[in-house]
Specification:
about 325 residues; alpha/beta; TIM Barrel; eight-stranded parallel β-barrel; two-stranded antiparallel ribbon; about 35% helix
């Protein structure tokens, strides 16, 4: 039985993600890296292996909203390239649908630190993609990956800033498709779930993002998570890592276990970063591996090997 056959179309009930029978659901999955840079990993053979061998139930498609790693994002591309990016997302969703996997479409805010920088483009993207994906019941939308600090002004993107953005983008999606779960990023690279818990948005079927990297984010962030859950905030960990937040250094098995035990105890869905062979700790594939599917343990980094264990639990 595939994940979608088991759970069907998902929705949010109270503080939980639930299935068609209102049973709490915990999804576990893998995020792609920048789809501009690593489109080759969006293929049926890889996704099927992740489902069958690693027990993955969701794939996240990270579509960078602006320039990153020498590759243009959606907002700074021309219309032809935007169409190609949308086609790749549709391809990924179709593969997931055929395999009975869930699929998260991620507007990957990062280098455009404030989502309000490209609100018009976000609305354009989500109007276009939601029309194309309306028929797919396995889709979840993530509307702003990691609102964060302006590295020039040192000013944090506030929760009010994010609320302003969400109040424009969510209705644009709802006009076309009012049934999908939508996930909203939080402050400080999506660590500010406490602020979201104190002033949640007035929309149904909404969840909020928490991101952590186990060797960087420890008890202080876990305390924010616990506070938000005590306020009944529905949380989805749309991205996490087992090493440092900067992508370098060693994996931290001890801190990763503390986090994963905490998430499993609350049945919080979580997605690991990232599906690529980029030379960084958080990649699950070793740099010298040129395969795009059929991965063996020898092809996996320490992060990738730990990912298998996390997904299978």
């Amino acid at each position: 039985m595939t994940p979608f056959e088991k759970y069907g179309k998902l929705h949010v009930e109270g503080k939980n993600l639930v299935d068609e029978k209102n049973n709490v659901v915990q999804l576990k999955g893998i995020s792609t890296h920048n789809l501009n840079e690593y489109p080759q990993y969006v293929n049926a053979e890889a996704f099927k292996q992740f489902r069958d061998e690693y027990n993955v139930s969701i794939m996240r498609l990270a579509m960078y909203s602006a320039f990153a790693d020498d590759h243009a994002g959606y907002s700074d591309s021309d219309d032809e390239h935007r169409a190609k990016l949308e086609d790749l997302i549709v391809k990924g969703v179709e593969i997931c649908d055929q395999l009975g996997l869930y699929c998260m479409v991620d507007w990957h805010i990062l280098f455009d630190y404030d989502p309000n920088m490209h609100t018009d483009m976000a609305i354009r993207f989500f109007k276009s993609i939601s029309a194309k994906l309306k028929k797919f019941d396995n889709v979840i939308y993530e509307i702003c990956n990691e609102p964060n600090m302006n590295l020039e002004t040192k000013e944090e993107t506030s929760w009010d800033d994010i609320r302003n953005y969400a109040k424009q983008v969510i209705p644009a999606i709802r006009e076309i498709d009012d049934t999908k779960v939508i996930i909203v990023g939080t402050t400080i690279w999506s660590q500010g779930v406490d602020k979201a818990a104190d002033a949640p948005l007035d929309f149904d079927n909404i969840m909020y993002t928490l991101h952590f990297y186990a060797d960087t984010h420890r008890d202080q962030l876990r305390d924010k998570f616990k506070y938000a859950r005590s306020k009944d905030l529905p949380i989805f960990v749309t991205e996490f890592g087992v090493g440092r937040a900067d992508g370098d250094g060693d994996i931290n098995e001890e801190q990763s276990k503390i986090w994963i035990d905490l998430l499993n105890g609350e049945k919080i869905s979580h997605i690991i970063w990232n599906l690529s062979n980029k030379a960084e700790t958080s990649s699950i594939i070793v740099p010298e591996c040129k395969k795009t599917s059929g991965f063996t343990d020898a092809d996996l980094t320490p992060c990738g090997l730990m990912m298998k264990d996390i997904m299978r639990k």
